[in-house]
Fold:
Amino acid sequence: MKENTTEYVILGILRNKSRTGYDINKVVKTRLGPFWDINYSQIYPTLRELEKGGAITKRVEINERGQNRNVYSITNEGKNKLKEWLLKPAKPEKHKIELMLKIGFGEQVSNTELIKQVQAFRERHVAQLENVYRIENELKAQLDQNEANYFMLLSVELGAKFHLSAVDWADTTITKLRSRDK
Structure:
């Protein structure tokens, strides 16, 4: 059976604080988005599976508008499951970067067209870098409030270096492609 990393993301998010599915999605988008992608549609089925397996519990609360909301908490079994996963070696990274293919087969199109592709790639990574820096600043401001912020900061710093490297590569590649046109 294939391991569902989404389970561990959710358990990791719940490790220090109970949250709703909406809250979990918000953390995924605002804190993990620069380096991990989970669709909103994956969260609730995974929550159901985790609850069924005893890794989390659900309680119903009534919010300020009188609406029911499900709040999820990690159990000891869930903490053990998360810890077991954390102790396993990480899977090798798999990069599927379509632009690498386009550059690799680039002799079929003009340098101008390739430059457009690389510039778009660069813009995406600059935007992600801005997001990473925002998260990094928030974590640094909250460093003394929760030990988990220190460890999240370490992973965010890797995300920053990844996006910086992508921007640097794009700048170098654009310069090289432009020099070929002369």
